[in-house]
Amino acid sequence: MSQGPLRIGFVPEHFSTPLHFAQKYYGLHATLIPFPSGTGHMVTAIRAGEIDVAIGLTEGWIAGLGKETVESDDGGYRLVGTYVETPLCWAISTGAGRPDITSISSLKGGKIGVSRIGSGSYVMGYVLADQQGWLAENASFSDTVVLHDFEKLRGAVNSGEADFFMWEHFTSKKYYDSGEIRRVGEIYTPWSSWKIVASTKLAHGTTLDARVKTLFAALDHGVKHFEQNPDEAVAYISTELGYTEPDAREWLKTVRFPSRTEGVKDEVVENCVAILRKAGVLVQGKGLAPESMVLRVTEAGP
């Protein structure tokens, strides 16, 4: 394939700050393509050959590879790196004018809004239902409403098209502060939250395209810069990404990026797959096995 700049899909939220620093200061020669609708959209894009590498939510990537049917024989991508080591806090939101919804228990049998089938917002609905015991009662949700992006999700819980949705806490917070939506509760991922994947055109057998290795090196520098320059990170997040300065500072206390982004721990993938099988998102014996989802690198390609 072409040896031009990597096309990297990412979610344009606060988590993307080390990626921004990698490109600004550390020679990351790549085309950054924003996907505000999230990981589910990037799964489709990387399989379609629209992007080469992507940074997204662990559960979205793993659900995509573990499904019974995939859009290409090899699943289209492999897990190659770890971007965030801490869990993600998913805030659970409803409409501002929904007095009938007072707690997480009020959501049982309701309509869940998701960005896409297979996205983090979709997968975590099953994890929530499993944690609450609703799956065992066969009484989780009456409908799954696909709404594509955060703005439409907020509109849907206010119009009644959906009863609730889940999105990252700090991205949701300013809409709680403005009174547009209301917070019902939260749920944390039982795994480290962000992974890096590469197309199987770049990651195949035990070989990884050398440009992805270069990406890891630049990202590692970007992470170090992020950690050593918190004021610059806060300034970028609050001026370019739409967060308040206090929220950006508070988020910095909750997140931990790895010092080395290359590689994925087997136990993280195995744990995620086990929970997604328990929650009914994945079925044992279907899709890729956990050990096949991660590229085992022994050499870098040209």
Automatic annotation (TrEMBL):
UniProt family annotation: Belongs to the bacterial solute-binding protein SsuA/TauA family.
Compartments where located: Periplasm
GO cellular component: periplasmic space
Keyword Signal in annotation: yes
Organism: Moelleriella libera RCEF 2490
Top-rank taxon, per record: Eukaryota
Keywords, ordered alphabetically: Signal
Protein name listed in UniProt: Ca3427-like PBP 2 domain-containing protein
A matching Pfam family: PBP2_Ca3427_like
